[in-house]
Specification:
mainly alpha, 2 domains, two-stranded antiparallel sheet, 12 helices, 46% helix, globular
Length: 244
């Protein structure tokens, strides 16, 4: 049976991350826990600082797999945003373990970039290309006939929060694989998202109506639709510009 350890939000994560443990539930901060002053989310300390300084905005459950669990506002609903990508990661890992996907597969860059909406991800995609040593023009890869190792491509989804990889994996694996992966982690009733359509709908809300996955696939495979939708992204209506 797992044990819930109740401590302040900042030190709670330290108990697991740093290996602190107790034989009885902890009701106050251990003496060796130090407040994290930083909130720089590019660092581990910054994440701990954020949890400690704004605990009312954070929900977490950390399980070390050895019977020690840290929980904080665990039943509070939080906006997922890119956190939903962990479901895609889990589905990918399950597929590799089952031999359904090969982590060393060489994927044409075209197959990655067809799910990418340029200029809408805060530079995540070009940053991933840079890290992987893939030639690019600061927005997209310059040689779409080149290939990238599948496992390296998936790392971009997590490390840089690349928005193209989740829809690529959805296309490769199918919705059932994602739903099953979510259920295996305790998430029943998972509704599979499409980041392509979610982004496009910001610029043209009508694209978010109807079958969103069908719209994403039109972006990926219908050149004329892609050209028309790209014009909306590059030249959004004034009301969209004013909101940004």
């Amino acid at each position: 049976m797992s044990r819930t350890v109740a401590v302040s939000a900042g030190c709670a994560a330290v108990l697991i991350v740093a290996g602190c443990s107790a034989t009885e539930p902890v009701t106050q901060e251990p003496d060796n826990c130090v407040s994290a002053a930083s909130t720089d989310l590019n660092t581990q300390e910054g994440w701990l600082g954020l949890i400690e300084q704004t605990p009312e905005t954070v929900s977490l459950v950390v399980d070390d797999g050895r019977g020690h669990v840290v929980e904080h506002r665990q039943d509070e609903q939080q906006a997922l945003a890119s956190a939903v990508k962990v479901v895609h990661l889990a589905a990918y890992a399950r597929a590799v373990a089952a031999g359904e996907l090969d982590a060393d597969e060489q994927v044409p860059l075209l197959d990655w970039e067809r799910w990418y909406v340029p200029g809408t991800d805060g530079g995540a995609h070009p940053a991933a290309l840079d890290r992987l040593g893939i030639a690019n023009d600061g927005v997209s890869a310059t040689d779409l006939t080149a290939t990238v190792r599948l496992d390296d491509m998936v790392t971009a989804m997590i490390r840089e929060s690349d928005n193209a990889v989740p829809d690529y994996l959805r296309y490769r694996l199918g919705d059932d694989a994602l739903v099953d992966a979510a259920a295996a982690g305790g998430w029943e009733g998972f509704e599979v998202p499409t980041l392509v359509t979610t982004v496009l709908a910001v610029f043209d809300p009508t694209l978010g109506e109807g079958d969103q996955w069908a719209t994403a696939q039109r972006w990926a495979f219908d050149d004329q639709f892609r050209a028309d939708a790209s014009a909306e992204v590059q030249n959004p209506p004034m009301k969209i510009r004013l909101r940004r």
